[in-house]
Specification:
With about 550 residues, the protein is of the alpha/beta class. It contains 17 helices and eleven strands. The N terminus is likely disordered.
Length: about 550
């Protein structure tokens, strides 16, 4: 396995006081991704992701704990790291600090459990540990495992217990992929901790989202290398921006935002950037590893444990927020996923009024129905769907018709370029629904499928593409070959087929052909060919060979 040179350039990452915030973010992104590539070794991207993100998260929790404790201890004129078990009043300090930390942070770490203290023990307090200094490392795997467990145990019986439950379960420190022997695994982990320890996140001095953004950048980079699996946990940032800007249209604050297929939580956090404040975040995710990632992502972005409620279960079969009514609802559900379509769902309030369920082979409209049920009367919902959901027949046509004809909830349909999602090249669309529409007599169609930038094998939406989509939606502009407001009568005349080309005419007429000019060109070519044939025939006669024609 390669060693860890890339870590060393991180030491001064937060020191350049004149560095702009954007440059700062880009540099942090670059350095952390270099670390990930260097340390990945024999693991694939999604396996190694769990380790590198877990270690960064542990370091973040440690720095938050130390910063918080120092502020409490300031009146005692002592620092958190100066407290040792040998002090006579050590346990008294710990009891007081733990009570405060559990209420404010949701977890607790003792001074000897901090990231930096463990890193020091691992390298034997040798700050100049070299990559080949295996004999200098101290065995700390047992201590690390115990500390990660203690973080969880510290929350037992508190309001934050569920948010920290089994949060580190995907970091298998006994995996042979880290090394064949415990000693080999220890050496690698000590070096990871040692070099990460050289980064000072300076949480009190920088915008809180600098580290959170870097964390999310890593999630996105792992997604780009994870192929089809990426769709399980990450929505491309450009698509997240569009969804977030749409559902926050006309709002400065949101009481709540909900994502029923929240993945790593990035889409929920993206919505929060578009408004001044979000009261509460709700999400549900079926994949256990991704569920853990979402909770870490929330905490890394400074969202207090009392303000997010992320659950792990199958959203369609076992919804975990049955009474939730959210002001903004967003989702990038798995495209055309299978689900039970059990007839018992027809008695479920989410589906009962429609009279039909989405087909078992395609759950797209089951997610639509679920989201509509949880949408507030003054709310906006937006979700990504495969294009087929716009025009497929059967039960899906029945549901589309009900949403438009009976409820008049559909506000807009936006066509996106193909090949913008990880792991699939299919074209997709965004459906926007509102229960109280300001423009109830028409539905806006936007065809943004041809506006993108091709980067290697992936199509990318740039800021100007995003801005055009969002401004067109918000102003309900009609632009030739780009957007059109279709009346409900037109929709009905098309039998509720929402295929975008039916409403946005993108036909480009070809230039007229000048037949006379073409005929004249053909005559000229014929004359030239006859002359060439005669020349070749002359050569053949001189050589005494048969002519080829």
């Amino acid at each position: 396995m390669k060693t860890f040179q890339d870590f060393r350039s991180l030491e001064g990452l937060f020191i350049e006081s004149n560095e702009s915030m954007e440059e700062h973010k880009r540099e942090l992104d670059k350095q952390l991704w270099n670390i990930a590539n260097t340390l990945r070794g024999k693991m694939n991207a999604d396996e190694f992701r769990d380790y590198i993100l877990g270690f960064i998260f542990y370091k973040y929790l440690s720095e938050r704990m130390e910063q918080f404790a120092d502020s409490i201890l300031e009146q005692d004129k002592i620092r958190f790291t100066e407290l040792t078990p040998q002090m006579p009043d050590y346990e008294g300090f710990m009891k007081e600090l733990k009570e405060e930390a559990l209420e404010q942070l949701g977890y607790f770490l003792r001074p000897e459990e901090l990231f930096t203290e463990l890193a020091k023990r691992g390298r034997g307090d040798d700050n100049d540990l070299e990559d080949d200094d295996e004999e200098k490392t101290v065995f700390i795997l047992g201590d690390l495992q115990k500390i990660l467990m203690n973080i969880q145990l510290s929350t037992m019986g508190t309001e934050s217990e569920e948010d920290f439950d089994n949060l580190f379960e995907d970091m298998d420190l006994n995996s042979t992929k880290l090394g064949k022997t415990p000693e080999a695994r220890n050496t690698i982990i000590v070096k990871v901790l040692s070099h990460l320890d050289k980064i000072d996140f300076r949480l009190a001095e920088t915008e809180r989202d600098v580290l959170g953004d870097a964390y999310e950048y890593l999630i996105g980079q792992f997604a780009s290398g994870a192929g089809k699996k990426a769709g399980e946990f990450y929505t491309p940032q450009a698509v997240s921006k569009i969804l977030a800007k749409i559902v926050t249209t006309g709002k400065q604050k949101l009481k709540s935002v909900y994502d029923p297929t929240c993945g790593s939580g990035s889409l929920l956090l993206r919505v929060a950037r578009e408004v001044k404040d979000v009261g509460h975040f709700y999400g549900q995710e079926m994949n256990r590893t991704t569920y853990n990632l979402a909770r870490m992502n929330m905490i890394m972005h400074g969202v207090h444990y009392s303000r997010f409620d992320i659950k792990q279960e199958d959203t369609l079969e076992r919804p975990q927020h049955p009474d939730l009514i959210a002001e903004a609802v967003v989702a990038n559900p798995p495209f055309s996923a299978q689900w039970s379509a059990n007839p018992l769902h027809l008695s479920d309030d989410r589906f009962s009024q429609y009279g039909k369920l989405a087909p078992s082979s395609k759950a797209d409209f089951a997610f639509v129905q679920h989201m509509v049920y949880h949408l507030a009367e003054n709310g906006i919902m937006a979700l990504v769907l495969p294009h087929g959901a716009l025009f497929r027949g059967g039960a899906e046509l029945h549901i589309r018709r009900y949403l438009i004809e009976q409820k008049n909830y559909l506000d807009a349909v936006i066509g996106l370029p193909a090949n913008i999602f990880f792991g699939t090249s299919i074209p997709t669309c965004i459906m926007v629904l509102k229960k109280c529409r300001e423009h109830p007599n028409d539905i806006l169609f936007i065809d943004a499928s041809n506006e993108f930038e091709k980067v290697k094998t992936q199509n990318m939406l740039r800021d100007e593409h995003i801005e055009k989509i969002v401004s067109t939606y918000r102003q309900r502009e009609e632009t030739e070959k780009y957007s059109h407001r279709a009346s409900l009568t037109d929709i009905a005349a098309n039998d509720y087929n929402l295929n975008i080309p039916r409403y946005v005419d993108t036909f480009e007429a070809e230039e007229p052909v000048d037949i006379d000019a073409v005929a004249e060109e053909l005559k000229t070519l014929q004359t030239r060919m006859a002359s060439t044939d005669e020349t070749i025939a002359g050569y053949c006669r001189e050589l005494g060979i048969a002519m080829p024609f």
